[in-house]
């Protein structure tokens, strides 16, 4: 019951909180919080039933991704309850069967992706409701043919991808597509087509068709069949001959790929009406000067200018000075990638191609870039802007290697093995804007390496072996915006190593060997730096004492990464470590083995919006109250796998703009709902991987997650109970945890009213009984009490005299002389004489009653008004009625009317049960005789045994007044001091 009461109180305490924040979930899907509740992802599920996966999704869904699952069948009307869907991805599943009406009611669908499945058959009416479909992908299935009329309703289809299937009948395909007046792109690569023979023309809107990697041995089409096509890919049809193009209109083609075919390009150009500048000559067997010169001469007879010349994958090993002189003027890019070039000889083979804008020599066998300053030729490539040598084997770059290319803006030397970069290798490149030297073997940079590159904006030196940045290395790079030094071995910067970087915005230092953060290095770009990446270094702090923040003056910094410090992590965060970062928007602290997070750790980050602490800590079992108190702008918080056991409501108290909270993979067994009460903007809560107990401790959380519509609790229905994974957290039986509030209030109100009504009656009827029982209970355990009960026959006194102090004169002058004197041998107990000093009054009364054979109550009007006298008669009457001992004698000193006794029920009961005596007053005929008789009766009553032998009532009228005497219940006054009542 105590537990239930506590639970009930908890319900009332957090009632307001439950109304402030809300929760909901889906069985298998996760809502993308950035999509205004319209984009869902259902990925990596074990469920094979499509209906079960999506049955609980709302009608508002516009984009749905169901990928990488075990689904093999889509039943009829699977998506009928999602009529507003516009984008549907069903790729990378195991789909084999799609029922005829699977996509019924999807009238708004625009994009459908069914790629990478096992679909071999499509029903002719499958897409009948997809009137607005513009994109359809069936890539990587096992389709052998298309049923007639399958696209009859998809009149808005713009792009159709059916690559990587088993299609063989091109005519059947064109029949299915003939009425599609909006189709522009058709991809049929990686099929088994043998020709393009067709009885039906292609849609007039079609401009791009991809037929690579088929088994085409002929085109087999009419003259005008390809007359409107602009992009045609016939590559990797190894059996396609030159003569296949004879008589085929290719006049609209602006890009044609013939890679790895049997086509002889020179012969092809002679028989075709294609624009020679539109042909990609990559992979066409032009592997020597003779063939290249022949091609160039032919091209020159057809066109004077050619935009791009693609000569990749031709096995070219060498180009002589005159090889490309016979070609038309190249105004765009020359592509020599994927050949076998070992030298470029300062591009001497391009000495007459002075208008060229870009040169691509990627994926060749170049080993060095020689100096070009000493060359005799004077060719200057005034228009050359882009030069790329990626994916070669370049070991060194000599001085003035680009002497004749001083106008280039983009130079890519990355992914080579460059170990030596001459300090004048980049000399003269005054217009260079982007330089990539990443993924090489560079160890040193000199202070004049980049001296001439004054317009450089992006410099990438990632993944080299640089250990030190020397003074003046970047002193001329005043316009540099992005500097990437990640993945090197940098241990430190010399004092002026970063001088000159006045415009630097993005600085990447991740994956180095830095052990500290030197704030003095950042002074030159402290007002411009927006991104600083320090992850995976060796930064570590050994105490949490306050230090001068290394970020003190980085007022513009927006993105800071400190995650994964090697090998032990940061361990501690010094106090005021983030001081000055008021503009910071994103902070990464994952994988850092922090042993504690101080309550003021993030106090300075008032502008922070994204914070990830995933796996950042060891031993942080409880987040400190107020640790996020200043992060009022935070929208995404990731505290995954931190070992959190519990947290209080003060932890998230000020996160009023938080929309995404990841709590997953922690070890708390319960979450208090009131800890989330201020998260009024919360939309996404992830509690997966938390060992939540299915007990009353979590009943409020269960109720919150199930019944409210504002916060998505990620895959709640898959969260297991800790004690048994077969049971789920969302539906464990929690009825026993709650009390019916209405019933409880009714019962409590009824009890209060009943007690309020009964209390006066109980007070009147049982007051003295309860009070007496209390006093007896108090004395019960006393040694004196037990001894008196056991030794009753050896009582210390013959009688205890109970009287009021106003009757003391009669007691002293009449009672004592007649019972202790005049030949009587009775021993009386009187309170003023025999009570033990310093002892509790109640204990003295109890002791007196039980130490005496009799209790004589001297009853008068004053006696009836005394509470202590009433207590004494109560004790004596208890022995009389409950213990059946004849111990009580009543002596009335004066006549008392029935009206006056009507309130003393206990005394009336005694009078009906026992003999009582009336003191003869002065109105008696013979007072002296009456008084002698009174004393004789009293002495005889005192000598009788204590055991009651009769229930008869005996009244001794020794000159009783005319009026009758009765008793009723005695109502006490407020309890006063015993001696004051007895003596005053």
TrEMBL record:
It is a single-pass type I membrane protein. It is found in: Membrane. Residues 795-942 form the TIR domain. GO terms for molecular function: signaling receptor activity. Its main location: membrane. The chain crosses the membrane at residues 744-768. Keywords: Glycoprotein, Immunity, Inflammatory response, Innate immunity, Leucine-rich repeat, Membrane, Receptor, Repeat, Signal, Transmembrane, Transmembrane helix. Residues 1-23 form the signal peptide. GO terms for biological process: inflammatory response; innate immune response; toll-like receptor signaling pathway. Pfam families: LRR_8, TIR. InterPro entries: Leu-rich_rpt, Leu-rich_rpt_typical-subtyp, LRR_dom_sf, TIR_dom, Toll_tir_struct_dom_sf. SMART domains: LRR_SD22, LRR_TYP, TIR. One of its GO terms (cellular component) is plasma membrane. The keyword Transmembrane applies. Belongs to the Toll-like receptor family. This is Toll-like receptor 21. It comes from Scophthalmus maximus.
